[in-house]
Amino acid sequence: MEQRQLAPLDARLPEWNRSSLVERVCPFCGNAGTPFCRRPDLLDVQRCTGCGVFFIAPAPSPEQLDAFYAQYNERHRRLNSLSREVTMHLLAREPQADIRMMEIASCFASTQGLRALDVGFGLGANFVLLRKLGFAVEGIELDSEAINYVQQHLGIASVRQATIESVEGGEQYDVIIMHDLVEHPLQPMSLLRHAAALLKPGGVLSLWTPNATFVDHEQEPVAFRVDLEHMQYLTLPSCTWIAQRIGLEVVHLESVGFPNLKGMGQQPGSSSPLKRVVKSLPGVLPVLTRRRLQAEYDAQQSMRQGSYHLFCLMRK
Questions:
Q1: Total count of domains within the chain
Q2: Of 114, 120, 165, which is closest to residue 140 (Cα–Cα)?
Q3: Residue 64 neighbours by CB under 8 Å, 6+ apart
Q4: Which of 119, 123, 126 is nearest to 141 (CA)?
């Protein structure tokens, strides 16, 4: 039976070498999948017959994915991490404008001095918010440019190039952040098990990932048409399934938010030269930052009317 082909939405269309795709079962429970649809990048989405996640199979090889991420910041990231505008915005953000940070903080009587580890921190947005809440922040990331950015521009020194599997010892952290992470690796269960082992008793693992719970109700599921480096998609029931397998308890689980489709039709680095000139004028960036913060705050107020993301907190 021929797979239903989804229409392109994201201009950033990876060119996978289909001759070197690797066979794959569900990366969470090991069960087989049933065909669901074909993404715009011509990779097939399977629905797991066991835990209910959706996953890509066959998938790009580890070597293909390594090559893709080696040039991710230059060729794929939509946001220019070297932009002064982005830096001003990140430093000005407040935790009260992020529902995830407030839910995490609500898990503790006090957050002062608690240790938080952000895995795959990207531009470091969580660092600023966690630090303002009183957390002692650390981070690991594979992108050396991202590491340099948060050190030089956000003032976060406790970051290094590493994977969570290379972090030694157990029961070190009160909070581990895995936002926009578990959808990427070919073997996500290994990361989740290691994260659970690194939590202190009472510690919290925070997951934020695209939500595939409701794709049956979409003719053209947006989650399967954007960010085509994603190798799997969680659902509400699968979060509970995963928590049980890694020895954690779900204390918060919701569908929330909307997809960020701004600039999806453009290639990275294709912003208008006129806009860049305007932003360089004296006094313009502070005004833009205030407007962006207000827009972000307004968006957070309506966040719970959406269902594009899964937000799950698991406690040890």
A1: 1
A2: 120
A3: 16, 17, 20
A4: 119
Q: Is 61 exposed, middle or buried (0-12, 13-18, 19+ CB in 10 A)?
A: middle
Identify whether 265 is part of a domain.
no
Long-range Cβ contact pairs of 282-287 (< 8 A, separation 24 or more): 285/84, 285/85, 285/88, 286/88
Find where tokens 């995490």 sit: 104
* 208-257 pLDDT, tens digit each: 999 999 999 999 999 999 999 999 999 999 999 999 999 999 999 999 99
Q: What is the pLDDT of residues 58-75, one digit of tens each?
A: 999 999 998 888 777 666
pTM: predicted TM-score of the whole model, two decimal places: 0.88
Q: Which domain holds residue 175?
A: 18-259+271-315
The CATH number for 214's domain is 3.40.50.150
Helices then strands, counting H and E runs in the chain, come out as 10, 11
Q: For 9-45, how does the pLDDT look when each residue is reduced to its tens digit (9 = 90+)?
A: 988 899 899 999 999 999 999 999 999 999 999 999 9
CA dist 5 → 37, 211, 212 (Å): 6, 20, 17
Residue 11 lies inside a defined structural domain of this protein: no
